[in-house]
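Re: beginner question about structure tokens

> Can someone show what the tokenized structure looks like for a real chain? I only ever see the sequence side.

Sure, here's an example I had lying around. Input first:
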Amino acid sequence: MIERYSTPEMTEIWSEESRIDLWLRIEVEAVRGWSKLGRVPPEAVEVIDRRAAVDIPRMKQIEEETHHDVIAFLKTLGESIGPEAHYVHLGMTSSDILDTATAVQLNRAGLLILKELDSLCEAVRKLALEHEKTPIMGRTHGVHAEPTSLGLKFAYWWDELSRAGDMLAVAVGAASVGKLSGAVGTYVNLDPAVERHVCEALGIRPAGISSQIVSRDRHAGYLNALAVLGAVIARQALEIRLLARTETSEILEGFAKKQKGSSAMPHKRNPIKCEQLCGLARLLRTNALAGVENIELWHERDISHSSVERVILPDSSTLAHYMIRKYQVVVERLDIRPDRMLANIESTNGLFASGTVLTMLVEKGLSRDEAYDVVQSAAMTARKNGTMFTDEIAKDTRTLELLGREGIAEATGLDRHLAATDAVYERLEIREPWKECGA
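And the corresponding structure tokens:
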């Protein structure tokens, strides 16, 4: 079922044909590396390079007998090359080609994901700039707190996505290492120069040290970076879902002209894309856990990680790539309702200014406890009676004397609450289009 989430580019990276092509290239490049050291005649390199090919159906036929995919691959390759095939796989073990090929796949998949993430970050950045001064009620514990800027909310999202990109970029780099160091990593039948040649030809680095395999903390880091990215997207998707509730109705998913929300209730407009994103993030977290479990292996290597990786590495890469693209569609088609946001701010009759009045009273010399009691009493009365908070707080003679009606009115002014957005934007450098996510 994972194929439904994949693009042709991601499908190609993880396809069986691409994997076998990488195995083939590793073997040919290893022969070239040996030739540079004088161990393989140049004419043999020419023959191997010209004849090297793998018939996948034939390889599968042999694998039915050997129960070993790499041996089946080598037998099939040998049939296509002929006598010169005895130079192929010289000094190598299966994991030399398996792990090196996987490193290339992770590198390609990671770069594809990061490219898509840059596009998503740019879409979010544009919203942050557009709505820098658009007021929206900030909520804590799901309850009205104080006004904030919708732009700041989007800037927060952009910063989250940028950090997730930075984390992923580091993880992709750490996972983009190959190895041709032999059965236990000692190069007893290999030369580090061969390893270096192959990895450079494939655009990756040799691992600083390896056993029979590359350490699986590298793969776990990649999977965990994808899980964090997925969780960030899911957190933002959840925020959209919460703001789309009927009682709030401040930001909604875009709704196509012929789209239907419910088979039973024609009025429904459900945030289905955001719900899907929240669900898929759970798969990324589950796969990340499996990746961490794969770190524990016996001695220089066992095979318990192998079957797991064949599922979680392509699946997590595919899902993360899909989630980014899906979320960008959501971001670019958001139904943003500033009038509704303002109405919700005004719905509590100025209660959001309680913290500002408290601060102003403390600045005028009242103790914090005394000021808190005065403001809380006025706020609770206003909430109970449905009256204006400013009217209730003005009934306290000390407050009126210390702040005056102009000071009380200033506390409820939205300009005061949004005044620091410029400073935050400058600190984030969000106005700079050149700042890429994962850079």
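Each token stands for a local structural state, so reading them left to right follows the chain. The chain has three domains: 2-87, 94-344, 351-411.
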